[in-house]
Amino acid sequence: MHETTAPPGAAAPVFYQQEEHAHGESGTLLGFWLYLMSDCLIFAVLFATFGVLGRNYAAGPSGADLFDLRLVALNTSLLLLSSITYGFAMLEVERERVDATLRWLAITGVLGAAFLGFELYEFAHLIREGATPQRSAFLSAFFTLVGTHGLHVTFGIVWLVTLMVQVRRRGLIAENQRRLMCLSMFWHFLDVVWIGVFTFVYLMGSMR
After folding, report:
1. pLDDT tens digit string along 112-156?
2. At CA 160, angle to CA 69 and CA 44, rounded to 5?
3. Are 111 and 82 in contact (CB under 8 A)?
């Protein structure tokens, strides 16, 4: 077996080790933006479906017969307030105050849970009145759209509690701050979607 050596007078090859730069933060945020865009498409389809089926009552009750705007307005206030408290939590993240961050996150979670509680109460009331999803195309579209938003809020609360546990254990490290930022975008996105639901489904539905 022959060993290959460099010719006399020739410089030995020099190998340079190039340091790889971490792209975790930009990659995570880009991926999450893509996820939010896909969620926008889902809700756009649901809004379009409701727009087509929203007047097909099948001789059943309409939104004007069913919706309690005072309850819906209270529920809307809870969700919008939770978005403000999450903003306060992100301000505390910038100041690296773990306890204050956890307090604001807990308040956000409580407000989100209260929003879900009122939504479940509304669903139960409608079902008791016989306004089930099978009653008409209008009610099928209504329960699908509002229920999908409620499932997103539920997922957001689970995610919020998980992050609170991680922040308590590991503090406001870079990874946790990035995750909190992603959840912040998700939570504000749900607020924007709910404003559309409140306007397009409840307000306009009550006028029909």
Report:
1. 999 999 999 999 999 999 999 999 999 999 999 999 999 999 999
2. 50
3. yes
Amino acid identity for residue 114 in this structure? A
Q: Give me the helices (H) in the chain, please.
A: 24-53, 63-66, 69-94, 98-128, 137-170, 174-197, 204-207
- For the stretch 94-118, what's the b/e string if a residue is b when 16 or more beta carbons lie within 10 angstroms of its beta carbon? eeeeeeebbebbebbbebbebbbeb
**Residue 105 to residue 89: CA distance in whole angstroms:** 6
Fill in the amino acid letter for 15. F
Q: Structure pTM?
A: 0.85
Tens digit of each residue's pLDDT (9 = 90 or more) over 144-183: 999 999 999 999 999 999 999 999 999 999 999 999 999 9
HSE, CB side, 13 Å, CA atoms: give it for residue 17. 1
